[in-house]
Amino acid sequence: MLKLPDLSHKLAVTVDLEGHNLVMSPPLEPHPMKQIAGRDRGSDRPRRGSREARPNENEPRQANLIHGVSPVLEALRAASRRIDKVMIAEGVREIRLKDVIELCRSRGIACNSVPRASIDRLFEMGVNHQGVAAFAAAAEYVDLSVLLDNAQDPALILLLDGVEDPRNLGAILRVSECAAADGIVIPERRAVGLNDTVAKSSAGAIEYVPVAKVTNLNRCIEDLKERNIWVVGTSMDAAIDYTDWDWNRPTALVLGGEGGGLHRLVSENCDALVKIPMYGKIDSLNVSVAAGVILFEAKRQRNSS
Q: Is the pTM value of this prediction over 0.70?
């Protein structure tokens, strides 16, 4: 007699995102004759190249889940949003997890050790969560007036004109925090918002950098000018090198989206346009790299004045 293996230990995990509970239940077995579109028959794994295998990262799949050691650690340190529970995979060896556990203990936050598969099931296939996840309130936007009222003197603000890649936005958040910029302004349409991919890519900077979302970027530019903030855009065709601009003035730096650059009307509404000279065969930098180059030039000038 052929003895079948005991599969009772393979359980499905249902996540209650409001109550933040894990409910274990037996998995549903697919009909033996039914093939789900985009999957191999009898398998729960999407086929390579299928539409299901490539989720749209611009949509926040789990806006209240933070994953990765640095993002979770910085969320706990910043205490800028509520953290309800932290899950750490059994067997993870990461020295910074000691700080995560200590912060959870000091703030009275539940910190549970769970099988790694329990965390795997919370995310899309291939997400590098590093064995740690936190259930948190979604990252919130700030009102533009609040961002401006709290800006340093002179102000240093970023306006993003259509950045759609969540990893680019995350990298821009990180470089903005490192350069001590006052905040970032993004448009409501044709731009990525704050989601879990952005949070992971920012390495925790999302907890510290205020982000305002506006319906009309050109109206925002007019508001900045009324506050005597210079609006400086970036363009490969600009006549001024970025090092020649006086960044000691209160300034809002405007960066265009991937590939397209600034929209025509946004470019026309800028007080000035600057460029980063290119010396190789490629004619432009990634938007997050360009942000870092210019922001740290601004800080260099301000620190030396």
A: no
